[in-house]
Design a protein that fits this description.
47% strand; mainly beta; eight-stranded mixed β-sheet; four-stranded parallel β-sheet; 110 residues; 0% helix
């Protein structure tokens, strides 16, 4: 560990900067003030979080949840539901200008 205030709980966890929590297995956290929970996740930015499996987070001040997301350069929120590293899918996202993107149909709940 290269910095201060890191909490790693699990196996094969890499945490490079300060004020990070990394829980699970095979996670990589390279920014500061991060939360990474799950397995095979990669967090490259600051003040970011991901919770799930096989997630990539490339944006500061963002949250990614689910499994196997597609990388978008301007997302602040992503919900992913891919099936594998070779079949990534983001089903909902909010970009940094407030735009909302979704996959599938929009239905009203009764």
């Amino acid at each position: 560990q290269n910095s201060w205030y890191q909490l790693n709980l699990g196996e094969n966890l890499v945490t490079d900067k300060s004020y990070t929590v990394n829980v699970g297995s095979n996670n990589l956290s390279q920014g500061s003030y991060e939360l990474t929970i799950g397995e095979n996740n990669k967090n490259y930015k600051n003040k970011a979080a991901e919770i799930g499996t096989g997630l990539w987070n490339w944006n500061d001040n963002s949250l990614v949840i689910g499994k196997y997301n597609v990388r978008y350069a301007d997302s602040v929120l992503e919900i992913a539901y891919g099936t594998s590293d070779s079949n990534r899918k983001t089903i909902f996202r909010v970009d940094s200008s407030g735009g909302v993107w979704y996959a599938g149909e929009l239905h009203q709940m009764s």
